Amino acid sequence: QVQLVESGGGLVQAGGSLRLSCAASGRTFSPYDMAWFRQAPGKEREFVASITWSYSSTNYADSVKGRFTISRDKEKYTMYLQMNNLKPEDTAVYYCAARTSGYTYNYWGQGTQVTVSS
């Protein structure tokens, strides 16, 4: 069983930065891709960014392009999300996810809270 554990969330002022990490553990882990999602209070979970595990091809939601950068370290089985120029609307619980087969993400972390004050 694969486990994903996020870290790095916290409280930051608007314009500040945070770096989230997602560490994978468990059996041999070789996903097709990994992603970050977020869910703000009263809203549905939304896609933030994704990265393919083998080639590091990335994809971003329009709302975070130019501000967030997704990356991964294959040797450490860890994915990152560097978040710069944070805005209050970025406040949410951030989840990492991994897809090992099929079209849906089949592994999820427990989430880490990001709060951006104005």
The overall average pLDDT, rounded, is 95
Give the count of helical stretches.
Answer: 0
Q: How much is the radius of gyration in Å?
A: 13 Å
Report how far the terminal alpha carbons are from each other.
40 Å
Number of separate strands: 11
Main sheet attributes: strand count, strand direction, barrel closure:
7 strands, mixed
Query: Which consecutive residue ranges, at least 5 long each, have pLDDT under 50?
Result: none
Could you write a compact summary of the structure shown?
By secondary structure, this protein is an all-beta fold. It is 0% helix and 53% strand.
Q: What key phrases describe this protein's structure?
A:
118 residues; mainly beta; seven-stranded mixed beta sheet; four-stranded antiparallel beta sheet
Q: What can you see in these coordinates?
A:
There is one protein chain. With 118 residues, this protein is mainly beta. It is built from no helices and eleven strands. 0% of the residues lie in helices and 53% in strands. The chain is globular, with a radius of gyration of 13 Å. The mean pLDDT is 95. The strands form two sheets. Strands 2, 4, 5, 6, 9, 10 and 11 form a seven-stranded mixed beta sheet that branches. A four-stranded antiparallel beta sheet has the order 1-3-8-7, with no helix packed on it. It has strands at residues 3-7, 10-13, 18-25, 33-39, 46-52, 58-60, 68-73, 78-83, 92-99, 107-108, 112-117.
